[in-house]
Specification:
Pfam families (chain B): YEATS
Helix content of chain B: 10-25%
Keywords (chain B): Nucleus, Transcription, Transcription regulation
Strand content of chain A: under 5%
Strand order of the largest sheet of chain A: 1-2
CATH topology of the largest domain in chain B: Immunoglobulin-like
Distance between the termini of chain B: 69 Å
Distance between the termini of chain A: 40 Å
Strand order of the largest sheet of chain B: 5-2-1-8
Number of helices of chain A: 21
Number of strands of chain B: 8
Shape of chain A: extended
Number of domains of chain B: 2
Structural class of chain A: mainly alpha
Oligomer: heterodimer
Radius of gyration of chain B: 26 Å
CATH architecture of the largest domain in chain B: Sandwich
Shape of chain B: flat
Largest interface: A-B, 59 and 59 residues
Number of strands of chain A: 3
Order of helices and strands of chain A: HHHHEEHHHHHHHHHEHHHHHHHH
Number of helices of chain B: 3
Largest sheet of chain B: 4 strands, antiparallel
Protein name (chain B): YEATS domain-containing protein
Subcellular location (chain B): Nucleus
Main location (chain B): nucleus
């Protein structure tokens, strides 16, 4: 079937001519047999996703001594514990049905989560940062969710990061493993003992990764350019060093020497940067004049002979937010938009760029203060009514994260003193349900922090803002379903 | 002793700059162009973009628009004092896709039907900078909003403002452009002696490179720094006010940790 067939065009004369014309002068690869030309053209010469089977293979007759039938037979699955019997179609050769276990049962892997006794806990596992209850709960969740730590972190009632949970789990498993072994050498080769989990490194790794992934094409291109330039400078410096044996007079040496420090600064800086992108291009901390962090131009810029103001701004924004997470950066940009400020200035003069950076810095301060305030409030409320199983201190699970996160929503919103009081009343009124709802909601959705943020926006951006209408759990449930669907 | 000034023709008033000396100096200048001014930067405000006219009834399948892509001074001053040459890299389907414009105004007109990214590479005079600079402009032919019908009278204009920054410029360059309207030169540090300015080339020989009388001038966008600054100042005020409020609330909570609720009133 061809487009020409569909259009009812004559198949001979014209199509042949077109085919001849459209064929490239030299065919890079021959089309494999068994794929129609049209389908092959769609792949653009890229290897096909599906293996192609030669049509002649399909027509081959099976050996004549085999008599193959398909039968609807019952089977049991050893991976199931309930002995449920189901039926399926089975290929039966010469009347002998296949024996053995259900072939997919082997994919049902479960994790051996260690069990510890109370005595063992007391002896080896106490940790000032963890209570026994929390540890028990963690191991229970680990068993239930097969070590899917992202899910576990979502379910976990207190604010623990994935890394903290992993750290606790692996350190406990390790301690038990070592404690139970008769000789320490017996378990030395065990992966748990050999390679202890390093939470700090993991956190760092994830931060660096998200940094790299959030880089734009242009930034990557600029980075490559800067690296190439660094290499060029290094080479020319080597040449210059070789040349110093032949004395040259006057300014030439002087100029080279003047350039050396800054160039080498930038060079090492860049080497660092590629190794650890999250640390971006913080101006060399050793330099005493690098005090005003935002105002100074990053070293990578200083070594460039020429650059665009917008590029410099990008670099400085990146440097300033290198310590912040992706979520915080998103929130800064959201706030900028709410304030009606362009994310990238339209007229990026030096003064505008400086103001823009200052504004970003202030917003960061603002967000940090908000976080602090939320935390303090939560602390206060959990002190007041101790019935709370899960402290609502975490902004991601927090019930009222939305209206606090976006202080500059275009519509007028009062930040009067009654805000706190109102919310407290409300929380007392419908006690647990809304919190619980939010919590479950975020579990079902999200693995990543940004999504938490998105959810809070979805939930709280709706027409009935929390600060206006005291909503009952029922309406919230309705809204949740809507968002869910 | 400054050695950086490149005298292409004449105009140097220093006695020692005879031709042969200059030539030998120039070879060194490739590596380091004279004395550089530390903690000092010179910037050139530019606008780059395109103006595209729809051809209306005259439009053919492959030539529906006539467009001009350009790099101009933000106030339409002549960029020729700084930029020596601009290279426009067009889509590979054009004839000779690499177009070199050797003199200001740095603009290029073509006809076509499609939008694509144009890479504009700027080369500078040798006393300015030996490195080229790339600009990326996405050629725009079709109006953004659907409601706006295509008309042959009103072109589609897309422009970006930016500034070319030369950190640590050579003193000769600063001396040459110090009073030129196209360049932003901050106040020179006290006690700095600049060499006497030297022209890059004969002014009389050059045609005018500014874009003040360009037929496209009426379509150029006005970029106002003041508006932008005002907007930013307003935003900062709002944020600062909010920060102050949060600080108050925080101190209130800290002040009465055992109280039922912190009500800042």
């Amino acid at each position: 079937m061809d487009a020409k067939d569909i259009l009812g065009l004559p198949k001979n004369a014209i199509p042949i001519a077109q085919e001849k014309k459209s064929r490239p002068p030299k065919e890079p690869q021959r089309k494999p047999d068994g794929i129609s030309r049209e389908v092959y053209m769609l792949t653009g010469g890229v290897a096909p996703l599906m293996p192609s089977i030669d049509a002649s293979q399909l027509k081959k007759r099976p050996p004549s001594d085999e008599k193959v039938t398909w039968q609807w037979l019952p089977f049991t699955n050893s991976a199931r514990k309930d002995n449920l019997q189901l039926y399926h179609w089975v290929r039966v050769v010469n009347g002998v049905p296949p024996t053995g276990d259900y072939p997919f049962a082997k994919y049902n892997k479960s994790v051996d989560v260690v069990k510890y006794t109370d005595e063992e806990y007391e002896k080896h596992l106490t940790d000032p940062k963890w209570t026994k209850e929390e540890t028990d709960l963690l191991f229970d969740l680990c068993q239930r969710f097969d070590l899917r730590f992202v899910v576990i972190a979502d379910r976990f009632p207190s604010p623990r990061t994935v890394e903290e949970l992993k750290d606790r789990y692996y350190s406990v498993s390790r301690a038990i493993l070592i404690a139970r072994a008769p000789f320490p050498t017996d378990v030395a080769g065990h992966p748990l003992a050999k390679e202890p989990y390093n939470a700090q490194q993991e956190t760092e790794r994830k931060r660096a990764l998200s940094m790299v992934l959030s880089q734009t094409k242009q930034q990557e291109r600029k980075d490559a350019e800067v690296l190439a330039e660094a290499k060029r400078i290094q080479e020319s410096r080597m040449l210059a060093k070789r040349d110093t044996k032949m004395p040259k007079k006057g300014h030439y040496d002087g100029a080279e020497e003047q350039e050396l420090p800054s160039a080498s600064d930038a060079g090492t800086e860049n080497a660092d940067r590629t190794a650890l992108p999250s640390d971006a291009i913080s101006p060399s901390t050793a330099a005493p004049n690098a005090a005003a962090d935002n105002a100074t131009i990053p070293a990578s810029l200083r070594m460039l002979r020429v650059y665009l103001r917008t590029y410099a701004l990008e670099q400085m924004v990146q440097a300033a937010s290198s310590s912040a997470g992706l979520r915080t950066i998103n929130r800064i940009e959201q706030t900028l938009q709410d304030l009606g400020v362009n994310l990238k200035p339209k007229v990026p003069t030096k003064a505008v760029c400086a103001e823009h950076l200052e504004l970003r810095r202030e917003i960061l301060t603002l967000l940090n203060l908000q976080k602090q305030l939320q935390y303090k409030e939560a602390e206060g409320s959990s002190l007041r009514d101790g019935s709370y199983a899960d402290p609502p201190g975490t902004p991601k699970h927090s019930y009222h994260a939305g209206d606090q996160d976006r202080p500059f929503v275009p519509e007028p919103l009062s930040f009067g003193g009654d805000r706190v009081g109102k919310r407290d009343q409300k929380r007392k009124a419908n006690a647990l349900p809304p919190l619980y709802l939010c919590f479950e909601f975020s579990c079902r959705w999200s693995c990543y922090e940004q999504q938490h943020f998105l959810i809070s926006v979805v939930l709280f951006q709706g027409p009935g803002r929390l600060s206006e209408a005291p909503s009952s759990p029922a309406t919230k449930r309705a809204r949740k379903q809507k968002a869910d669907g | 002793m400054p050695n950086s000034s490149l005298t292409k023709k004449h105009g140097s008033d220093r006695p020692e700059s005879s031709g042969s000396v200059l030539k030998s100096q120039r070879s060194k200048l490739v590596q380091s162009s004279g004395k550089r001014l530390k903690d000092f930067e010179v910037s050139v405000p530019i606008v780059y973009g395109n103006v595209a006219f729809w051809l209306g009834r005259k439009a053919s399948e492959y030539q529906s628009h006539e467009w001009t892509v350009y790099v101009r001074g933000a106030t339409n001053e002549d960029l020729g004092v700084v930029i020596k040459r601009a290279v426009f890299q067009l889509h590979s389907s054009f004839n000779n896709p690499t177009r070199v414009v050797e003199s200001p105004p740095f603009e290029l007109s073509e006809a076509g039907w499609g939008e694509f990214e144009i890479v504009i590479t700027l080369y500078f005079h040798s006393d300015v900078c030996d490195k080229p600079l790339n600009l990326y402009h996405h050629l725009k032919l079709y109006p953004e909003d659907e409601s706006c019908t295509m008309s042959t009278k009103k072109p589609v204009v897309v422009e970006s403002y930016d500034e070319i920054v030369f950190p640590e410029p050579s003193d000769a360059f600063v001396a040459r452009v110090q009073n030129h309207p196209v360049v932003n030169v901050p106040r020179l540090p006290a006690g700095l002696n600049l060499p006497s300015p030297v022209q890059v080339e004969d002014v009389e020989k050059r045609k005018r490179g500014d874009t003040k009388d360009s037929p496209l001038t009426q379509w150029f966008t006005n970029f106002s720094e003041a508006d932008e600054l005002l907007k930013l100042a307003a935003a900062r005020q709002q944020v600062q006010a909010h920060i102050a409020k949060l600080r108050r609330q925080l101190t209130l909570i800290d002040g009465q940790p055992q109280q039922s609720k912190p009500t800042p009133e």
